[in-house]
Specification:
The complex is a heterodimer of chains A (281) and B (293).
Chain A (H helix, E strand, L loop, with lengths): L6 H27 L4 H5 L10 H11 L9 H32 L5 H10 L9 H10 L6 H9 L2 H11 L4 H9 L4 H12 L1 H16 L3 H6 L8 H7 L10 H21 L1 H11 L2
Helix pairs in contact in A: 1-14, 3-14, 4-7, 4-8, 4-11, 11-15
Chain B lengths: L11 H28 L1 E3 L6 E3 L3 H8 L1 H34 L4 H13 L2 H12 L5 H8 L10 H29 L3 H9 L4 H31 L1 H7 L11 H11 L3 H31 L1
Antiparallel strand pairs in B: 1-2
The chains are: A mainly alpha (281), B mainly alpha (293).
Chain lengths: 281, 293
Amino acid sequence: MRARAPAADWLPHLILLGGVVIVAFPIYMTFVASSLTPQDILAGMPLLPGSHLFANYREALFTGVAATSGESVARMLWNTLVMALIIAVGKIAISLLSAYAVVFFRFPLRMVIFWMIFVTLMLPVEVRIVPTYKVVADLGMIDSFAGLTIPLIASATATLLFRQFFLTVPDELVEAAKIDGAGPLRFLVDTVIPLSSTNMAALFVILFIYGWNQFLWPLLVTNSAEMTTIVIGLTRMIGTGDGRTDWDIVMATAILALLPPALVVVLMQRWFVKGLVESEK
Amino acid sequence: MQRRVVFRGKALPYLLVTPQLAVTLVFFFWPAAQAFWQSVHREDPFGLSSHFVGLDNFTALLADPDYADAILRTAVFSLAVTVLVLVPSLLLAVMADRVIKAATAYKTVLLLPYAVAPAVAGVLWLFLFYPGVGPLAFALHRLGIDWNYLLNGGQAMALVIVIAAWKQISYNFLFFLAGLQSIPKSLLEAAAIDGAGRTRRFWTIVFPLLSPTAFFLVVVDVVYAFFDTFGVIRSVTAGGPGKSTEILVYKVYYDGVVALDLGGSAAQSVILMAIVVALTALQFRYVERKVHY
């Protein structure tokens, strides 16, 4: 490569710093606002955190706000955690099993079943809101974790990812297992699942974020305050014009709502990147 | 593609696919069939009976100026979001590909918006721009701009576009960066030896090799703008003021869940499904092309 001009060395850093500032600004300002009193916020916000950090978070977590029927944020966080874990683990489990069947067996209707799973890629919840809601209501699953999670558990993405990976498992491994007298279930548990562990970790990160961030579906199927998720609860806290909005508490809640998925992205970055890039192939 | 060596088993494979198949049938195929059925029926005002009306719901929908407006609005919205995501992400990815120091730190921050739920992203930005409260709303006022997105439709649209683009930057950045890092360094070095400068190397080598990634991202971003931005719209503007930010997916929700026009909402669902199928087909055609090139 040619020798670089000195100007070229700091320019990328300057542009990247600009990008980082724009991207981080809303999150940072929310954090600052969550440490102030409502008066501080309305009197023109400072750029540095104030002294009410712990008081605000304590109030948000344990007291609850009238606008959300008095449900505490701690309860909402719990609901959201349960929902996200059921969705992530459930999706991985059922996709792993169906991909295993489609790849390691040959049986009548195999391709029909594969295509039936595949076309669900084309039907996001958003396009079939009302009929899906009606099915869940008819099954009596409104306001339950089952209604909140099971309709979101079936998805083609994870199945396709596992299928792709299973196709790369060497035939020799399968033959060796057969010679040793191992049946399909034994092979699944002893060989395929350990081999898939990095794929499962990557998928788990993506699916946990997907589950945690659900909005439209919980909005439809939860009515009772005890079932509110954090994302729904947060949007309900903002006054609709007539009511006063406690911005300090709202901002503390917003930070609490984005902290778990953000931590997952930061701490499990390698798997997150792998999951994101591979699940789109 | 198939495996050569497989297991034998009669009942077991069916047993293994049953959980996924059951959920798919009950929560995907059944509701989708219902949507088609409802889209050609009309319920009486009490919801007691419904009768077949053929394509009436569709013709009524397509003749409705509100729907035409929503289509146009969605087109403007998704085009603006796509451009506003692609250009900065590409710039940032190209820069991140050049630096070695602090690269991980930049990357970590740029990936953060992906973790933020659309509705939560909406709340973060809504606060910054909330008239009479947010610091950026104050700043705009000081610049002499009459900022109030709660009353001004154009401002509301601009705000939801910015929020939607902000959230999608991580994804585009990551794919552009991966694309850049897969370009063989030998090509760039050969061009440098031949005397091509940095700009010229970008436009003649990097950009063409990156175009499949860019095309893939265009499709992903359009799908994102169509469907995944519901949370942003709902938490920031709820489609308002007036109907100035009511995009198609919000209209399906509003007409079906709030206004309870089941036939009309179902017809909209069917049209949206057609759009998703078309976009997905486009995406897969591209994936096939990528395999060959």
